[in-house]
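Ops channel
N.P.: pipeline sanity check, posting one input/output pair.
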């Protein structure tokens, strides 16, 4: 159990590489927090400064309210696991895992129980007698994770610990980490570039890019109300679609209009943007593939023509439970994901003219210059749906 505060921490390598740029955040006791961002964002450097393996150029690291910025790693009660760990080659998997407990003179029965419990979770119970060279890469990594987890540390730091495991094992580990965290009442700061890991495990996500925080929030909040275009594009699979547009008054209605389309905004969005519409400004529409539907462009395919975007089929991908349509719209490709039960009752072929149906209450709008979100999906939709669910 521990509480972590990172206060305006900066790390500059050499003369000019600003790896971490004034980062501030807190992790509460027993909280599971993710640092999520692309490669090179400064995630590993941040973890290493918290663990005491790297010294900040500026700022402070506090653990349980005590300034630990300059403390030695062993005085911080922090356990860390890396993306690729090395084991002691002459020790069995069991002894590798038991090692941190032996160092702390943990009583035999407790040591044995902790190692076995963690081994069971990691599905390496049958491998405990083996030496590292008798284990596959994925098995070695699980032993390394185990060696970290057996420790009764205040704060666990995990740097992409499962990114090299195969897909099935990753999905098992996602569940188990979550269970383990509540069972051990652990405080965890977990680094990943994989938004799915963050979405499924985190209490809160800190999205970072270029050493700086882009947004902090619960997974739902990050997904539903991304603060800027970077977060919107980084979180969600398939990724959000973006279309350049202007917001302007169009035949008495306020619309987001771009290359070959014009989407009238819902009442709530129109009201929020009425001032903008008088002096047109560059925006980007953001549309989640899951919130779009596809239809033919004939009259029999529905009468909501005005809230659609016309295009042609570029590619069709079948994912089993869903189908993803890539639709060419002007110079861009828009992805539409339809669940199997929501597929239109006809086949689409490459180059077929189609219409993308847009529920305009669900659109995001980003300022093209700053990237900041100007409009999130309309809340009235959410409340409307809750009312229906409650009925
Ligand atoms: N020891 C170092 N010397 C110089 N530059 C470094 C060093 N470690 C990391 N960097 C640079 O700092 C930036 C952030 O790296 P890192 O923290 O490893 O990112 P991430 O873990 O998010 O991929 C990168 O541009 C990287 O090249
Ligand atoms: Mg890294």
């Amino acid at each position: 159990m521990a509480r972590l505060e990172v206060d305006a921490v900066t790390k500059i390598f050499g003369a000019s590489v600003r790896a971490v740029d004034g980062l501030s955040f807190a992790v509460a006791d027993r909280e599971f927090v993710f640092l999520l961002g692309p490669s090179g964002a400064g995630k590993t450097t941040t973890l290493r400064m918290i663990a005491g393996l790297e010294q900040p150029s500026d700022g402070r690291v506090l653990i349980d309210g005590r300034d630990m910025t300059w403390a030695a790693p062993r005085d911080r009660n922090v356990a860390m696991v890396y993306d690729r760990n090395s084991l002691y080659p002459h020790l069995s998997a069991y002894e590798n895992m038991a090692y941190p407990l032996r160092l702390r003179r943990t009583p035999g029965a407790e040591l044995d129980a902790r190692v076995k419990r963690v081994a069971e979770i990691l599905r390496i119970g049958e491998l405990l007698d083996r030496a590292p060279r008798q284990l596959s890469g994925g098995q070695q990594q699980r032993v390394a994770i185990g060696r970290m987890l057996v420790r009764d540390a205040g704060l666990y730091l995990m740097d992409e610990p499962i990114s090299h495991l195969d897909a099935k094992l990753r999905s098992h580990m996602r569940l188990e980490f979550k269970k383990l965290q509540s069972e051990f009442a652990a405080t965890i700061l977990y680094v990943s570039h994989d938004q799915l890991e963050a979405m499924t495990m985190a209490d809160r996500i800190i999205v970072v890019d270029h050493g700086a925080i882009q947004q902090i929030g619960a997974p739902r909040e990050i997904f539903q109300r991304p603060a800027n275009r970077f977060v919107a594009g980084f979180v969600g699979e398939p990724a959000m679609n973006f279309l350049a547009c202007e917001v302007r008054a169009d035949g008495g209605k306020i619309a987001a209009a771009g290359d070959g389309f014009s989407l009238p905004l819902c009442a709530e969005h129109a009201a929020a943007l009425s001032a903008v519409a008088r002096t047109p400004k560059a925006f980007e529409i953001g549309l989640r593939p899951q919130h779009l539907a596809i239809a033919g462009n004939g009259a029999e395919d529905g009468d909501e023509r005005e809230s659609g975007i016309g295009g042609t089929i570029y590619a069709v991908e079948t994912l089993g439970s869903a189908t993803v349509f890539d639709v060419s719209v002007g110079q861009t490709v828009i992805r539409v994901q339809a669940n199997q039960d929501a597929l239109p009752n006809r086949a689409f072929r490459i180059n077929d003219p189609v219409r993308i149906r847009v529920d305009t209450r669900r659109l995001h709008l980003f300022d093209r210059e700053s990237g900041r979100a100007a409009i999130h999906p309309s809340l009235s939709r959410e409340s409307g749906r809750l009312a229906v669910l409650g009925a």
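N.P.: looks fine end to end. The chain has ten helices and 21 strands.
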